[in-house]
Amino acid sequence: MAQAENQIGREVKKATVREVNQLIAYSVGDPLYDTEVKEEQQFRKRILIVDDDADVTVTFKVGIEDSNNSGDVNKRIEVYTSNDAVVALSEFKPNFYDLLLVDINMPYLNGYELCEKILAIDINVKVCFMSSVEINREGLREIYPSLSWGCFIRKPVSIDYLLKRIKSELD
């Protein structure tokens, strides 16, 4: 119990009243904790950003998470990142993510190959491709006929535009 109280003390500084109540319920084993957390999580969307440039993943993650503070609490976005496509594939959780933001040009496994493999595991996840170079979509449609080409984001991109595209894909 003392350990739970110490954990509560550290978290209270940053937590809302509801979060404190959930932490207390969790620490004493309250069965309502799971129900409350699941209800809250149903309003959250999860995205995975895969880009070999750590500056891009960190910048996008911070920008998206900052928007959670100023927006509707029922439309929060949880952001997960990976700087290695092979690792992203090996750690991918089916039916967990709502949207993938995937860089096209990455070593070992490009964005298209990654998405082909992920869509074989989880057909429901939406994909937004990103690139800083011009892409010949017609040529790529011939090489990767099974991929959807609905969402494409050209880098560099402003956080405002990125958020607008993400929200339109998630709605």
Question: Care to describe what's here?
Answer:
The protein is α/β, with parallel strands linked by helices. The chain folds into two domains: 2-39, no CATH class; 44-170, Response regulator (Rossmann fold, 3-Layer(aba) Sandwich), CATH 3.40.50.2300. It has eight helices and five strands. It has helices at residues 2-12, 17-27, 32-41, 54-70, 85-90, 111-121, 137-143, 159-170, and strands spanning 45-50, 77-82, 99-103, 126-131, 151-154. The protein has a five-stranded parallel sheet, with helices on both faces. β1, α4 (54-70) and β2 form a beta-alpha-beta unit. α1 (2-12) runs antiparallel to α2 (17-27) and α2 crosses α3. The chain is globular and about 40 Å long. The chain starts with a helix and ends with a helix. Mean pLDDT is 79; it is low at 1-17.
Total helical elements = 8
Shape: globular
Task: Tally the structural domains.
Answer: 2
Mean pLDDT: 79
Quaternary structure of the protein = single chain
* Beta-strand share of residues: 15-25%
CATH class categorisation of the largest domain? Alpha Beta
Q: Which residues sit in consecutive blocks of at least 5 with pLDDT less than 50?
A: 1-17
Number of strands: 5
Major sheet details: 5 strands, parallel
- Name given to the CATH homologous superfamily of the largest domain: Response regulator
CATH topology of the largest domain: Rossmann fold
Give the helix/strand class. Answer: alpha/beta
User: Could you give the distance between the termini?
Assistant: 43 Å
Radius of gyration from CA coordinates = 19 Å
What is the N-to-C succession of helices and strands?
A: HHHEHEHEHEHEH
Approximately how much helix is present in the residues?
A: 40-55%
> CATH architecture of the largest domain, please?
3-Layer(aba) Sandwich
State the strand order across the main sheet: 2-1-3-4-5
